């Protein structure tokens, strides 16, 4: 696609590619600037709910006012693919830097302190990044660090590790509560502490083992001790990676302050943000109604002479600043074009009417009960309709009670079949003999006559 036109952008050079999309160094024809253009896979635009979340979170991310957050210029859709226009940051991500070996403690802690500022700004805006990792931190040649990719979440057809649930992130850096589908600001603090550990060791906290072992380690194991770090810094890592969110630092800034104090630094190294492209303008997606498979939001462009005017853009400086309030927490993540490690995703649950074993047992029990009641009623009908004879002996005998007999028809040799209602795939047949009731006379007792004194005495 190099040299091709993508809406208002000319694609110059592929920067990265991953399972969720591509990142291009592109030229924005409308502003004349070089940008980093993230183009998501076509499947991302086919889900209306996903698109709405993308629009909402990218719009909020574009208004985050922090020098360590990469500015978002614009976002939208073109030819059935969502895209995000961000400032191009010359530099290298931390994942590539760590391939050369671990960092010294002051450098690692200073990096974490810079990223902590970006996270605190996002958390104040009710945003949880959910995918903090070395590949998402870019370091400018001046040493200024940026946290990238606010406003992007992976589509639901990515690699899954659970059959239910909806977890987005990279397994090696995920907090324990994330595996239960929960995400909160302290989940990002756990991930940032994992990054600190990796910066000091050039290794992930729980290695590169298979997913099941990593998941178990996040849930149950303490982080390994960093031999090259002082004990105070190891204690900071232990608290930042505590299994329970309430046992961690309350903010990313608290984590950074504790890490700086552990190595004897009062504050991070003062840094001036490098000069980037002029501030961008944000254009939003149009309202989405219903499924939009491969919807072209921006018109396809041809030669410059045939291109329609650019859509109206609203400058971020004219937008109200994002402020913390009682709004619900908004959660986002990103597609990772540079890191091929699959994310943990929870696919949407599908519901199909099925007969569960428990439901079948209940149905069968009700059928059996109905059949038994029916058989008893049928068997008692002759008795209740006067089919039997009741005869009282006319004679009386001293010391004898009246005799009661009941004559019933002789039982038939063939039982009366009764068939229960049928369930598709199951057949139940029950046979009950016709009941016969016989009332026998009570026993007769003779009471002897006694005299006292005996006769003849």
Automatic annotation (TrEMBL):
<dbReference type="Pfam" id="PF00069">
    <property type="entry name" value="Pkinase"/>
</dbReference>
<keyword id="KW-0723">Serine/threonine-protein kinase</keyword>
<dbReference type="InterPro" id="IPR011009">
    <property type="entry name" value="Kinase-like_dom_sf"/>
</dbReference>
<protein>
    <recommendedName>
        <fullName>non-specific serine/threonine protein kinase</fullName>
        <ecNumber>2.7.11.1</ecNumber>
    </recommendedName>
</protein>
<keyword id="KW-0808">Transferase</keyword>
<dbReference type="InterPro" id="IPR000719">
    <property type="entry name" value="Prot_kinase_dom"/>
</dbReference>
<keyword id="KW-0472">Membrane</keyword>
<feature type="region of interest" description="Disordered">
    <location>
        <begin position="392"/>
        <end position="424"/>
    </location>
</feature>
<feature type="region of interest" description="Disordered">
    <location>
        <begin position="268"/>
        <end position="344"/>
    </location>
</feature>
<feature type="domain" description="Protein kinase">
    <location>
        <begin position="9"/>
        <end position="260"/>
    </location>
</feature>
<keyword id="KW-1133">Transmembrane helix</keyword>
<feature type="compositionally biased region" description="Polar residues">
    <location>
        <begin position="394"/>
        <end position="404"/>
    </location>
</feature>
<dbReference type="InterPro" id="IPR008271">
    <property type="entry name" value="Ser/Thr_kinase_AS"/>
</dbReference>
<dbReference type="GO" id="GO:0004674">
    <property type="term" value="F:protein serine/threonine kinase activity"/>
</dbReference>
<keyword id="KW-0812">Transmembrane</keyword>
<keyword id="KW-0418">Kinase</keyword>
<keyword id="KW-0067">ATP-binding</keyword>
<feature type="compositionally biased region" description="Low complexity">
    <location>
        <begin position="405"/>
        <end position="424"/>
    </location>
</feature>
<dbReference type="GO" id="GO:0005524">
    <property type="term" value="F:ATP binding"/>
</dbReference>
<feature type="transmembrane region" description="Helical">
    <location>
        <begin position="359"/>
        <end position="380"/>
    </location>
</feature>
<keyword id="KW-0547">Nucleotide-binding</keyword>
């Amino acid at each position: 696609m190099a040299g091709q036109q993508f809406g208002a952008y000319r694609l110059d050079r592929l920067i990265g590619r991953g399972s969720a999309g591509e990142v291009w160094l592109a030229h924005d024809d409308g502003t004349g600037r070089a940008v980093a253009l993230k183009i998501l896979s076509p499947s991302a635009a086919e889900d209306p709910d996903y698109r709405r979340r993308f629009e909402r979170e990218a719009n909020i991310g574009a208004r985050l006012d922090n020098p360590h957050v990469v500015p978002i210029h614009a976002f939208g859709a073109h030819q059935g693919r969502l895209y995000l226009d961000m400032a191009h940051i010359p530099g290298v991500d931390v994942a590539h830097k760590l391939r050369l070996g671990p960092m010294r403690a002051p450098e690692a802690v200073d990096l974490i302190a810079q990223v902590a500022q970006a996270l605190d700004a996002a958390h104040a805006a009710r945003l949880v990044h959910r995918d903090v990792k070395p590949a998402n931190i870019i370091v400018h040649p001046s040493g200024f660090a940026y946290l990238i990719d606010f406003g992007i979440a992976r589509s639901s057809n990515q690699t899954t590790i659970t059959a239910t649930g909806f977890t987005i992130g990279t397994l090696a850096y995920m907090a324990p509560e994330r595996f239960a589908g929960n995400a909160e600001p302290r989940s990002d603090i756990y991930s940032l502490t994992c990054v600190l550990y990796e910066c000091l060791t050039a290794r992930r906290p729980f290695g590169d083992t298979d997913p099941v072992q990593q998941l178990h380690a996040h849930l149950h194991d303490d982080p390994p001790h960093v031999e090259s770090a002082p004990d105070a810094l190891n204690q900071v890592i232990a608290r930042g990676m505590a299994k329970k969110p309430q046992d961690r630092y309350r903010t990313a800034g608290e984590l950074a302050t504790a890490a700086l104090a552990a190595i004897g630094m009062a504050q991070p190294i003062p840094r001036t943000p490098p000069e980037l492209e002029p501030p961008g303008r944000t254009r939003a997606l149009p309202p989405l109604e219903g499924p939009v498979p491969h919807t072209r939001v921006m018109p396809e462009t041809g030669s410059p002479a045939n291109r329609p005017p650019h859509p109206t853009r609203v400058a971020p400086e004219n937008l109200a600043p994002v402020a913390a309030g009682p709004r619900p927490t908004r959660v986002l993540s990103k597609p990772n074009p540079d890191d091929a490690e699959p994310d943990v995703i929870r696919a949407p649950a599908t519901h199909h009417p099925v007969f569960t074993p428990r439901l079948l047992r209940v149905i069968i029990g009700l059928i059996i009960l109905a059949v038994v009641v029916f058989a008893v009623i049928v068997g008692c009908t002759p008795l209740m309709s006067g089919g039997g004879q009741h005869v009282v002996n006319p004679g009386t005998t001293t010391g004898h009670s009246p005799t009661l007999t009941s004559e019933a028809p002789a039982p038939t040799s063939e039982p009366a079949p009764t068939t229960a209602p049928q369930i598709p795939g199951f057949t139940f047949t029950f046979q009950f003999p016709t009941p016969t009731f016989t009332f026998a006379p009570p026993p007769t007792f003779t009471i002897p006559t006694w005299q006292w004194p005996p006769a003849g005495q």
